[in-house]
Every structure is written in structure tokens, then in C-alpha cells.
Design brief:
The protein has 973 residues and is of the alpha+beta class.
């Protein structure tokens, strides 16, 4: 199974559209690879010969001619259960376990809708070796964080249980596998456990956003008509969930939870032979004597089903989704199969690039893209997702179909083909260069994904060689991409349109539009001129180093240039092949006015896309083709940022691009217009759910209405124009100190020279003025702030918050608040979800802005039924009062601190952790000292200190509350 990453960073609405479309299958695992024979002396070679009596041949590669990845070791137990294990030390000490059951929602009968997912819940709740609710606590004591290190996922084709065990020991892993074996074989499934867990499952079902769920259901019903996938959402439906009993759920479990349907996957920092022995020890006794039930047929697309359908969801932008559906067929995972797929993928990327070029220039659609996927072993699907500008979906569909028709009629130029190949070559080459630092958790997940679509895993060297061999065979030519552009649109065409307002004739219009002749309507293709870095404006003479200082605590170095630029260097081999670059400049939120709305909100959408000098975004795409160079913009509390992940070969030009952006920004009006349209389209969804209302209003409300945060009003968005955008951002790009952080696979002197030629060469910058007032917090309220949503009537949300603080001086207190928030969150979870079933995912978090002296807060949020809003506030205030009155018990504190400590330990093995912690340290050395104390501050936190922290901040006369209820529910005054 090879990896085919998408082409573009997702614009603002793409997650909305594609996230509601068809779930793509998992993609490639990128492990270390080397040539190794699959056979030995004409027979399959054992991968773990030390496991006597166990078949350890590589079962995964049966029927494949791909070079086996020797890092993976395989086995099949006498009971039929299989395993795949490997050593991986990223992060050090961690072991990632996945137990995959080859049964999901497609294995359910009509009366069992949602049972596969229900069993996922029950399995974690209690099983043979752990009492009800105790598994979470056991793994917390091992340092695992619930929800991230311990989790599970149910899909149409599988149920996968996940455990990332930090600082794993043989004893801890043995105990964990014992628990997981009991979870698979003998979960506690009784009438009592089903009754206890049912409210939690229904809460999860209730908390899903209604309009998006209905749109996703409509897509599946349209695209996969005639197949079980058309109406088999893993969450199930209320009727079958309420009718579930211990006997009916156990019957589903006993039918599908069998050794023959189970694969245990482990990737971690131990000997694979040990993994194999522990798997045999804990799973070999699982026996079944009853007949095996084969998987049901997943069917084939019905060619007689309607071509087009429509839905009217006012909370979702007008969207057209096309699908060309073909039956899914098993194919041996061979080199030639993957090479043919590569041609198809490059064809979709080329068409998507043309569509993006059209969207950038303005026209009938905000965005559009093409992808091809195998979906749930049910269909091979080519999908086209279109977001029109406004509601004129017919014009957008016509224009997109014209671009596709042109791609099917006229061959691309060789330059276009070479461009797509260059980008893909870079992606795969990067996988080879960074293979040593790929996380074990990703490798385990990728193995599970490969099993979902019945494919193998290929190491990065093997994958890259397959790509290069295809190139050598002449498989990437204008003629082959033309042929592929035709082939990927052969099949049964289906389409769905969301019209926002009801239109009884929409489906008929859509069916007619799909038949309309669009040949010759695409217009002239833009011929992209060749661009290289010589086209960027000159930055001047290299700068002069004024001083250098070693930072012994972290083996880093600070370099100060004569023009005021400061550099923090951290050369290290922790992540081979990767270089992280972050440029902080100006004052961030402190430099944005707090007394009026500004175009600050549009910076992320339009600032980078505005171009550099005489080069527009298309030119910059061409400039960086085949290079690991990017540019992301962000706003921190006390600085604006430019960010990129690049390579040892490319980081010097990455710095040049960033410096040119600050020195010679261009102001193309098209991205500003596009940002305005995108933001306006997003307003439709805000009122559709409690989550939408919170995402729009909460940040602003928690800062007492400060316009720097929160979603701008619709009037503010409508008023956005290129002139005002430039007037706001141009002086910001020119002013304020610059800090350049370069962390990763670089050499010190080379990095200093690269900065000297770029940021060191810039003219000195003027100081930034602080325009924003200190961040406020809303006044205590006896009655919650009320907001209404237009989504399902059984959805509501409740928020309670307390003000805290900010700044670097009291950072120890911030860390105690982090611990306090985790204690609060754990208790809220157990009482609100486990005991009462009132909320699926209540959460408590602490935010302490280091770059500001005010603005911190502790916030608890829960999605609940409308009649449980008051109950949420009651429980939250009760927990807060307990934290003030009673010291936390030692075991509870240990269960909180260990996962937090393990998170820090694992995160600190990567450069991004240090990059985040040390932002601004060249101007404020206190941040270096504060970073040194992260672990010790956590370890030193005592029950007495936590109680004192709670007493200081969780004061009942300071709390602020908010509720989001259905529009039909009267707000209680």
C-alpha cells in the first residue's frame, strides 16, 4: 500500500465539504525498508524463528510481489489469530498496540445498527480482568492518557482498539495485553452493563452535528445505493440502540469477535521477539469451537439507482458532490498495481491544481478538488467536491465539469506532468529521508489501515523505488495522464447537491446539468512560466553577526545580528531530514487594536496568498515545486509568526522566501476577495449546533467582547476589501523585532550564514507599539449567558469558566493549574459520562498566556441534553468546591501526573515541543529558565499546593457561565 498525499493545504471550507463526503481509506505506512527475500530455500522464511511452534511467515504479503519490509515480524497462532510486530523507538520507550477486529457496521443486521460501536464502549467499560470502569485507571497508572493513548475506533469494516503505552516495561506490557485479551474474548456484556452504557452511546450520537450528519447520510445513500454502506453509519440509530439487550449485543460479539477475525499489531521500543512471546502468552488460549461465520457481502453499486439527489440544509454552504462509483474488487498488492494507481493519482492532482488555479482567479466556485479512493471495501470512488460562490451551484458545476472535460480531451503539457511528478517525488523522497523518525503509533495505525483494504505495507525505499521505476518505464507522460483522466471518470455517476433552501426540482436540475455538453468551455489553460529563486527581490548584502551566546541548558545557541535580528539555533539529529523554521515578528495580539474590528481575522486566509514582489501564488507554487518549502502564517499573544517544516537541502531558500515575504509583500486582491467569500459561506453553519455557536462566540465572550478574538461579525466580513486589508497588514509586516528559530538537521555555521543572507540582510526595523488593552474577563453572572442554535432539539452545551492570570513570572502557578484542570476533567468525565451518561466528552482546560500578563482562564465545557444544563453546572460547581475543600488523594494525583509527565517526556523528544516552549526566548531569557523547570514543576506539585491553587482561582463569586440551547427552548431568566 503506497501513500498518495493530497496536493493542497485545505482551505477554510474544505474540511466541511470533504469531511462530510466519503471517508477515505487509510494510506501508506512509511517504515524503514530494505530489500529482503520473502522466501528462504524456496519456502516462506520465518520472521521470528525464536518463537518455536508458531507460524511466523509473513502472512501479510501473500499474493504480493512487493519487497517485504524486514522490520515487520509476523505470526499466526494455532487458534487462527494473527499478529504483526516491529521495533520502533519514536518516541523512546513507547509501545503502540492495536487490536483490530475484522468487523464493523457493515457486519450488522438491520436490528443490530450501532452494535459494533456499542461493543467498543462496553469492551473498555469492563471485561474479564478489570472491573467496571477500572481499565482507564489501570492505564493512567502506567502513564497513558485516556482518549489519546487509550482509545478505539469503529468503522464500516473494522473495530480497532488502541493503546500507546509510554515508558513501557515488560511487566506493564504483559499486564496490558492480558487486559486487552480479556476485552476481546470476555467483555462484560449483560443487561446491566448495556443499560449503564446506553446513555453514553446515545450521548455520543446526540452530540454529532445534525446538518452535517444528515448531509453525510445523504451522500452515502446516493453514492452507494443498493449497498449496505448506503445506510450503515457506525453510530447506529436510536431505535436499535434503545432496544439493545445484553443477549442481543453479546450475540453480535460472539459472532464476530473470534481469533480468526483478530490481528494484534505492536510497534514499539522493545524486542519484537518479546512482543511475539507476550502475544502468544496472552492470546493463545482464546479458543472457539462453534462454526465460523463468513463476512457478509458488501454488495455492488446499483446501476439503476437515481443519478442525482438533493438536500436542503441551511446550515451548510451550497455544495455539489459528484461521485463516479465502481465496484471494489480485491487485487493483489503488486508493484504494477501500485504504479497504475500512481498514474491515476497524478491525474487527479493535475486536475485539482487546474481547479485551484481557476478558484484563485475568481469565478463561479470558491474551491473544488478531485480524489480517488477505495471506500470500505464497497466501491472504488472518484469524487469531485465543489463549493460554489453564493448559491449558483449550476454555474459552478458547469465550470468544474468543463475543466474535467478539457482534461479528458486534451493532453496536458509535459511541463504540467513534470510538475506533478516533482511534487510527488519530493513527498516520497522525504519519507525515505525521515523514515528513522516516524512514530511507532503511526506505523501501527497504517498497518491496521492496510488490513482494512486488504493491502500490504511498503517501506519508504520500496515505495520510492516503485515510483522511480514507473518513471523509468515512461508511465508518466501526457498520453498516460490523458488516458487516466478518462478512465477515472468511467463508472456509475452519482451526484448530490445541497441547496440551503428547499428546491423540489433540484435533483432534476442536477441530473440535467450532468448531461449538459461542456466541451470547449474550459477556456485557455494558464501556461505557468518557469520561476526560480532568482526571481525573488534582492535582500541586500549579508548581515553582520553582533554577538553569539551558548545556551548550555539545551545545547542551543543565540546569535544576534547587527540589524536587530535574533536567532535561536538548535542543531540536532533527533529528527533526521527535517528542519523546523519559525519566524516571530511584531507584537501579535498586543499590536492589534482592541477598541475596533480589524482585518486581522483574514490574515491566515489571504496574507501568504497575496504573493511576493511580482510573483503571485501560482508563481510561488512553481518556485517551490519539487522542494520542501512552505509558508504558514499565525498570530501568537505577543508575536506574528511565519512557520515551515523544510529539509537540510531547502532551509536556506526557505529563509529567503520568508524574508522576502516580510520585505517585499505583494497585495494581490484576489485572495482577499476569496477570504471574504469563504468567511461569509461559513456563517451558515454557526447556528446549526451548540459547537457552531461556541466556535463563533465563546472566545470573544471569554475576553469580555474584545474584538481581537472570536469570529468577526457578518458586517465586518462583508466590509473586507483589498485596500483596507493592505492598510492594516502592511505596517505590521514592516515593524517589530524579528526572532528566527531554526531547529533540526542543520549545521551551525551554515545556518548562521543562511540567516545572514536573508533576515540579517534586512534593514533595521522600527519598534512595535502596543495598541491592545490588557485582556479582560467577563463579570460573574448569576444567570448564564444564553445563546440559541437551530440544530437538533436534543442538543445543548454548557460552559463554566474562572479567570486566572498570565505572563512568565507566575509560570509555576500556570503548571499547577494545568494539573488542576486535568483532575477537574477526570472527575467531570467520571461523574457526567460514566455515572450519569449525561455527556459524551466533557472537558476542562486551563489556558495561561505566557506573552500577556492577563487573559488566563479555567474552562469546563460539556455537551448535554437541554434538560441537563443545570445538572452540568451543579456537578461542575460541586467538583470545584471539593477541590477547594479537600486535598486530592495520592493515587488520584498519581494517575493525573503520570500521563502528564509521560506526555512531556514524549513530546520533548521532538523539535516542535522546544520550538513552542522557547518562542520569544531571545528577547526574554526567563522563558529559557521556565522551560528548564517544566518537568520538575510537575513532579513537585503536591495535594496541598493544588488545594491552594483551587482556593485562589475556583472562587464561586468569580465564575462565569454560558448555555447554548435549542431555539425552541425558552431561555430561563
Amino acid at each position: 500500500m503506497l501513500s498518495f498525499p493530497r496536493l493542497y493545504r485545505a482551505p477554510i471550507l474544505l474540511p466541511l465539504v470533504l469531511g462530510l463526503a466519503i471517508p477515505a481509506s487509510g494510506q501508506m505506512a512509511t517504515q524503514q525498508a530494505a530489500s529482503t527475500p520473502a522466501t528462504e530455500g524456496g519456502k516462506e522464511a520465518p520472521t521470528l524463528p525464536e518463537l518455536t511452534g508458531i507460524d511466523t511467515t509473513a502472512w501479510l504479503y501473500k499474493g504480493s510481489d512487493l519487497t517485504r519490509d524486514p522490520e515487520w515480524k509476523f505470526g499466526t497462532l494455532p487458534n487462527g489469530m494473527r499478529f504483526a510486530v516491529r521495533k520502533n523507538g519514536v518516541p523512546p520507550g513507547q509501545v503502540s498496540v492495536r487490536v483490530r477486529i475484522d468487523a464493523g457496521s457493515l457486519n450488522e443486521t438491520d436490528s443490530e445498527r450501532g452494535f459494533a460501536h456499542f461493543i467498543e464502549h462496553l469492551t473498555f467499560r469492563g471485561s474479564e480482568y478489570v472491573p467496571d470502569g477500572e481499565a482507564k485507571r489501570v492505564w493512567q497508572r502506567f502513564g497513558a492518557t485516556f482518549g489519546s493513548d487509550t482509545n478505539a475506533q469503529t468503522t464500516p469494516t473494522s473495530t480497532t482498539f488502541k493503546l500507546d503505552l509510554p515508558s513501557a516495561t515488560e511487566t506493564g506490557l504483559d499486564e496490558s495485553l492480558k487486559i486487552m485479551s480479556g476485552m476481546m474474548e470476555k467483555p462484560t456484556i449483560t443487561d446491566a452493563s448495556v443499560t449503564a452504557e446506553r446513555p453514553v452511546v446515545l450521548a455520543e450520537q446526540r452530540e454529532q452535528p445534525g446538518p452535517q450528519v444528515r448531509f453525510g447520510d445523504a451522500i452515502r445513500a446516493t453514492f452507494f445505493a443498493g449497498q449496505p454502506l448506503a445506510d450503515r453509519s457506525p453510530i447506529g440509530n436510536i431505535k436499535t440502540l434503545e432496544a439493545a439487550t445484553g443477549a442481543t449485543v453479546k450475540a453480535f460479539h460472539d459472532r464476530w469477535y473470534r481469533p480468526e477475525n483478530t490481528v494484534v499489531i505492536i510497534s514499539g521500543d522493545m524486542d519484537p521477539a518479546l512482543f511475539g512471546r507476550l502475544i502468544v502468552k496472552n492470546f493463545a488460549d482464546w479458543k472457539r469451537t462453534d462454526p465460523f461465520t463468513p463476512a457478509p457481502s458488501f454488495g455492488k453499486p446499483d446501476p439503476k439507482a437515481p443519478v442525482a439527489a438533493s438536500i436542503a440544509e441551511s446550515a451548510i454552504p451550497a455544495v455539489v458532490t459528484l461521485g463516479v462509483v465502481r465496484p471494489w474488487e480485491y487485487k493483489d498488492d503488486t508493484a504494477i498495481m501500485n504504479q497504475k494507481r500512481l498514474v491515476d493519482v497524478l491525474a487527479t492532482r493535475l486536475i485539482s491544481r487546474r481547479l485551484e488555479t481557476r478558484a484563485r482567479a475568481g469565478g463561479s466556485f470558491l474551491q473544488a478538488g478531485v480524489s480517488i479512493d477505495d471506500v470500505s471495501r464497497s466501491a472504488n470512488l472518484t469524487s469531485v467536491n465543489i463549493v460554489p460562490i453564493g448559491t449558483d451551484w449550476e454555474a459552478a458545476l458547469k465550470d468544474v465539469r468543463a475543466v474535467i472535460a478539457d482534461a479528458q480531451t486534451n493532453a496536458p503539457s509535459q511541463a504540467e506532468v513534470d510538475r506533478e511528478y516533482a511534487d510527488f517525488d519530493t513527498i516520497m523522497r522525504t519519507s525515505v529521508e525521515t523514515a528513522k523518525v516516524e512514530a511507532g503509533s503511526k506505523q501501527a495505525d497504517d498497518m491496521a489501515s492496510a488490513l482494512d483494504i486488504r493491502e500490504t505495507v511498503a517501506g519508504p525505499e520500496t515505495s520510492y523505488k516503485i515510483l522511480q521505476d514507473a518513471k523509468a518505464k515512461g508511465m508518466f507522460t501526457p498520453a498516460t495522464l490523458l488516458a487516466s483522466s478518462k478512465a477515472i471518470f468511467e463508472g456509475i455517476t452519482r451526484a448530490l447537491v445541497n441547496t440551503q433552501t428547499p428546491d423540489a426540482g433540484a435533483a432534476t436540475k442536477l441530473a440535467t446539468a450532468l448531461k449538459a455538453d461542456v466541451s470547449g468551455l474550459a477556456g485557455k489553460r494558464r501556461a505557468q512560466a518557469a520561476v526560480d529563486f532568482s526571481k525573488l527581490p534582492s535582500l541586500g548584502r549579508p548581515g553582520v553577526v553582533a554577538s553569539r551566546e551558548k545556551i548550555a541548558a539545551f545545547d542551543m545557541e543565540q546569535v544576534n545580528f547587527a540589524n536587530g535580528t535574533r536567532v535561536l539555533l538548535f542543531p540536532n539529529s533527533g529528527e533526521t531530514g527535517r528542519v523546523y523554521v519559525r519566524v516571530r515578528f511584531g507584537g501579535g495580539y498586543t499590536a492589534i487594536p482592541s477598541n475596533r474590528p480589524t482585518p486581522a481575522w483574514a490574515g491566515d486566509l489571504a496574507l501568504v496568498a497575496g504573493g511576493i514582489g511580482k510573483l503571485d501564488q501560482g508563481d510561488l507554487d512553481q518556485l517551490t515545486a519539487g522542494r520542501r518549502i512552505g509558508l504558514d502564517f499565525g498570530i501568537d499573544d505577543d508575536a506574528f509568526t511565519l512557520n515551515a517544516i523544510t529539509s537540510p537541502a531547502d532551509y536556506a531558500d526557505q529563509l529567503r522566501l520568508m524574508a522576502a515575504k516580510l520585505t517585499f509583500p505583494a497585495w494581490d486582491p484576489a485572495p482577499v476577495a476569496r477570504a471574504r467569500v469563504a468567511a461569509l459561506a461559513g456563517f451558515a453553519g454557526y447556528d446549526s449546533s451548540p459547537d457552531g455557536v461556541l466556535s463563533r462566540d465563546l472566545e470573544g465572550l471569554l475576553r469580555a467582547g474584545d474584538p481581537r478574538w472570536g469570529t468577526p461579525s457578518k458586517a465586518t466580513v462583508e466590509a473586507l476589501n483589498a485596500k483596507d486589508f493592505r492598510a492594516f497588514w502592511e505596517p505590521i509586516l514592516k515593524t517589530g523585532p524579528i526572532e528566527v528559530s531554526i531547529f533540526g538537521d542543520v549545521k551551525t555555521e551554515e545556518a548562521i550564514a543562511a540567516v545572514a543572507k536573508t533576515f540579517g540582510a534586512m534593514t533595521p526595523r522600527t519598534a512595535v507599539s502596543t495598541m491592545g488593552a490588557p485582556v479582560g474577563f467577563p463579570a460573574h453572572n448569576m444567570t448564564p449567558v444564553m445563546r440559541a442554535h437551530t440544530g437538533p432539539e436534543n442538543q445543548a452545551a454548557a460552559v463554566i469558566a474562572w479567570p486566572t492570570g498570565g505572563g512568565i513570572d507566575n509560570i509555576v502557578e500556570a503548571r499547577r493549574l494545568d494539573v488542576l484542570a486535568q483532575v477537574f476533567s477526570d472527575r467531570l468525565f467520571e461523574r457526567l459520562r460514566q455515572a450519569a451518561g449525561a455527556s459524551y466528552s466533557p472537558n476542562v482546560s486551563s489556558q495561561w498566556p505566557v506573552g500577556m500578563n492577563t487573559g488566563g482562564r479555567m474552562v469546563a465545557i460539556g455537551q448535554v441534553a437541554p434538560d441537563k444544563v443545570a445538572f452540568f453546572f451543579q456537578i461542575a460547581r460541586q467538583i470545584a468546591a471539593e477541590l477547594v475543600s479537600t486535598p486530592i488523594a495520592a493515587d488520584e494525583l498519581d494517575r493525573i501526573k503520570k500521563p502528564m509527565g509521560q506526555y512531556i517526556l514524549r513530546a520533548s523528544t521532538g523539535n516542535q515541543f522546544w520550538l513552542q516552549q522557547l518562542g520569544g526566548a531571545t528577547f526574554d531569557p526567563r522563558r529559557i529558565a521556565a522551560t528548564q523547570r517544566i518537568a520538575s514543576d510537575l513532579v513537585a506539585t503536591t495535594p496541598v499546593e493544588l488545594q491552594a491553587t483551587a482556593a485562589k482561582y475556583l472562587r464561586p463569586e468569580k465564575d462565569w457561565t454560558m448555555a447554548v440551547v435549542p431555539a425552541a427552548t425558552p431561555a430561563k431568566k
